[in-house]
Structure formats: structure tokens, C-alpha cells
Amino acid sequence: QVAAKMAPSMHRRSSALASVLAVGGLAAFSASFAFLFAGQAPRSAAVQSTTSGLTALEAVKAGKKKKQKQRLSLAEALEREKKEKEALAKGEVEKRDVAKLSPEQTFWEGPPSSTECFIPFLSCFVVLGIVPFIAAVNRQFRVKYKITDRRISVTSGWDGKDVTEFSYAEIAEMKFGLRYFGYCADLRINLRDGAKVEVFGLLNFFDNYRYIYSRIEKDARKKSDKPPRE
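RESULT FIELD:
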């Protein structure tokens, strides 16, 4: 009789234990399943971010390559200007459309002539001459001239962040003085708004001045110095 009474209670305990084990197993399975998906999501996000970063870097490099301006020789620049004038004369294109359609091309770009450091270097034997020499050396690293088919740009300043740009139409007059028998020259450009731009120690002066002179307006040519002969 005692065994008969204990049988139902043992059966209930075993069924309850089986239910607890089943619930525990289900919870463990769901937790491991969630952990796997939780681990995959950040990993896939990291892979996507890395891929997008590489794509952005490639796009930036491609953009820099496209932005690189082409250099022109004097003959190519004059030939291009001749074709533009012919197109304007025939009425095939308007003057404002020429700048829009054709990409900007660099004719010449570089620092001032290093010869301007010669005299300050000699003055270094005097204590006060050290300051002009340091200023002249700094100009070699901080000052840069750039001549394109649309504008002239002068980068200057002690930190090299002061940029002066003006188009050829803004030039009212140009005067120059040769240095070292034409190896370089100092160029003074007067703009129509009254501003003056000094370009000291301009290298490749004969070609550069001839190119600038050919692109300014007719009234500015009459006031400016004629291109020198080599």
C-alpha cells in the first residue's frame, strides 16, 4: 500500500523535472542563437564600413588625379589662344563659354629665383644681415607663383597661406626690371581697382611675360612694357 501511494508522487516529480530540463534547454538554445547573430551583425557592419572606407579613399585618389592641371608650353598656349580667338570671331562660341568648356591649364608654376638669397647671404657677415637672409630663405619655401590660362596666383606670407589671385582682364599695366642679364626679373602688376602686385625674382621670365602680355586686354598692352627680346 505504501508503494502504491508513493508511485503517483514519484511520477509527478519526474514529469516536473523533465519540464524544468526542457525549459532550461530551450532557454540555452535561444541564448546561444541570439549570441551568434549578435556577433555576426557587428562583424558584417565592420566589413561594410571597411569596404566603404576603401571605396571613399579610391574616390578621393581618383578625384585628385582628375584635378591635376596640365602644363602648357608657350607654343601650345599661343596655339590654343589663337583657336579660341578664331572661334570667337566666327561666332561659334561666346567668350564666357570658353572658360566654362575648356579646363584650366597651368603654363608655369614655381618659387622665386634663388639668386635673391645671394646678397643677403653676403650680408650675414654683419650681424644685422642675418634677418634679411632668413627672410630670403623663407621666401624660397613659402612663396609660389602660378600662371594658368585664366589667372595669375601669388602665394606668400610667413606661413605660405596668403593667396592673391586675379584674372588677366583685371590687369591694367605691367612694368618689369631684369636681373642678372635676364635670368629672372621683378614684375610689378597694377590692377584696375588700384591694387599693386609685386612678383620678385620671376624665373623663365621671357616666356612667362610674353604669355601674360598676350592674354591681357589691348588697353593694358599699350600701357605695359613691351616683351623683351632674348
